[in-house]
Amino acid sequence: MITEEALSQAATMLRRSRRPLLISHPRPDGDTIGSALALRLALLALGKEPIVACVHPISESFAFLPGADRYRRQVDESDGFDLVVAVDMSDLKRTGGLYRDHWRGTYPLLVIDHHETNQDFGDVNLVEPEAAATALVMERLIRKLGVPIRDEIATCLLTGTLTDTRGMRTQSTTVEVMEAVCRFVRAGGDYHTAVWEALDSRPLWMMKAWGVALNRLQVEDGLAWTSFPLAEKERFGISDEEDLDLGGLISKVREAKIAVSFNEMRDGTVKISFRSRPQYNVATVAAALGGGGHRQAAGCSVEGPLEAAIARVLPLLRRLLDGS
């Protein structure tokens, strides 16, 4: 639970900053983007000059959010920032290399997150694993800053909440989460655009890629898995930065208690996405492999090749299913 003292410390850090750097995690989803852009708008309202950065491009699904076009792919000391804010990430590796080791001790680090695997790596940490989305943590911080939540800020926070709860369908969706969504809509958040752009609309190339993934889908004793080989990415012209959302796709398999997807990358690694039913904590497997996430949705990257990664990970998931 985030204390009022921690909220006050975070707000003080932001008020003292002139040019804060807000970093979203690689292959950014709606929560990291929506939360960072909501904070950007709040800081602009306070007369600050925030920078938003992410090593990977922002998906078309989130291009409608105000400020999405202001993201930078690279930053360095010459940009003149005086505070670093890590948004929706469980450790510094999730900055994708944007954060430099020598920044520690030079620039204050504020962490805003909701992953249960977060180790409180900032100078000030607003980490609430019970929160369904980082956007809900960000709402509290923006209110602490005294900035009204309405219109564009509400749309950003609404998008973060809707995407991390898969349209209010995850186990983390409580009455309080539904009330938050209602608050954002009453404040002018664009619910229908957020649902269409972030949840329901997908480009044609992704639909075709899903066809490949579904053809490779296997289900056995409550475990579903699929893989997307590098050769198929080359055939479709898909970059490594694109999020195929394979985990979300195969999590819909009725017979699966745990679902996992393997996405072969050009650097020789394999990106893995886990999904599970409520009684299985896939974050433990992701953490054991150097990743992190939530009980029902987690991820990591391991060394390839693809078949070796599959052979390494499936036994871990079978043990989780067996309760051993």
What are the main properties of this structure?
globular; 324 residues; six-stranded mixed sheet; alpha/beta; single chain; Diaminopimelate Epimerase, Chain A, domain 1; inorganic pyrophosphatase (n-terminal core)
In brief, what are we looking at here?
With 324 residues, this protein is α/β, with parallel strands linked by helices. The chain is 38% helix and 17% strand.
Give structural notes.
By secondary structure, the chain is an alpha/beta fold. The protein has 2 domains: 4-200, inorganic pyrophosphatase (n-terminal core) (Alpha-Beta Complex), CATH 3.90.1640; 204-322, Diaminopimelate Epimerase, Chain A, domain 1 (Roll), CATH 3.10.310.30. It is 38% helix and 17% strand. The chain contains 11 helices and 11 strands. It has helices at residues 4-16, 30-45, 134-144, 151-164, 175-186, 191-200, 204-215, 230-236, 246-250, 282-288, 306-322; strands at residues 20-24, 51-53, 83-87, 109-113, 124-127, 218-220, 223-228, 258-264, 269-276, 292-293, 297-303. The strands form 2 sheets. The chain has a 6-stranded mixed β-sheet with strand order 6-7-8-9-11-10, with helices on both faces. Strand 1 (20-24), helix 2 and strand 2 (51-53) form a beta-alpha-beta unit. Helix 1 (4-16) crosses helix 3 (134-144) and helix 4 (151-164) packs antiparallel against helix 5 (175-186). The protein is globular. The two termini are 30 Å apart. The model has no long low-confidence stretch (mean pLDDT 94).
